[in-house]
């Protein structure tokens, strides 16, 4: 019963994690942000993976778990609210017996570290094209398992740093501009994560032979990956280049 309640709880938190930022972003009407058809389908698919039946005995993984059997399945969100339940193997076993424990990924310590990591993650993401063209869906999926939690953590550090920036020498308008930049960065990195999650789901379906031929799977995955690459460009354009004050 505890395991069931925990699964429903993390599913609910994940839905909130996705819906609330999207509502807020639409409310402030940020440019170049839209919930397109493929993104919506990917969101629904990920929810179904949580609440629907699965042939996989343990159809959920903690963030940071790089095991190949996590590809395409539900990832517990990186939220502080969930931390007490997953902080140690013993705590995890109480609420979700059988869920594999891994150490919680740690965020970058500074804005500069987060910015450097975002650039490194973008390069790694772009390199997935060749891996998918080779038809190595497992290698691509495992690399995404490594990339996605790092995008979440680095993106949060960027947003939190920008949102809290108060410079004694900065004018009121400059301080306000950092707040708007924080919104732009949040919109962009949320979009990147949405596309990467969609790629993860498609890679899982490809590994289970649910997408037809290898060529058909490659076309679908590459289309989503190229959308993710465009979102990376938007993210980089939103991040201030002057890092000296942060």
Descriptive report:
The protein has 246 residues and is mainly α. 66% of the residues lie in helices and 2% in strands. The chain has helices spanning 2-28, 37-51, 83-86, 89-95, 111-126, 128-133, 137-163, 172-207, 214-238; strands at residues 60-61, 74-75. Strands 1-2 form a two-stranded parallel sheet. Helix 1 (2-28) crosses helix 8 and helix 2 crosses helix 8.
SSE succession: HHEEHHHHHHH
**Structural class category:** mainly alpha
**Rounded to an integer, what's the Rg over CA atoms?**
18 Å
* Overall pLDDT confidence: 76
The major beta sheet can be summarized as: 2 strands, parallel
Q: What's the tally of helices?
A: 9
Outline type: flat
Strand content: under 5%
Spans with pLDDT under 50 lasting ≥5 residues?
A: 1-57
What is the terminal-to-terminal distance? 47 Å
Spatially, the strands of the biggest sheet line up as: 1-2
Helix content: 55-70%
Strand runs, count: 2
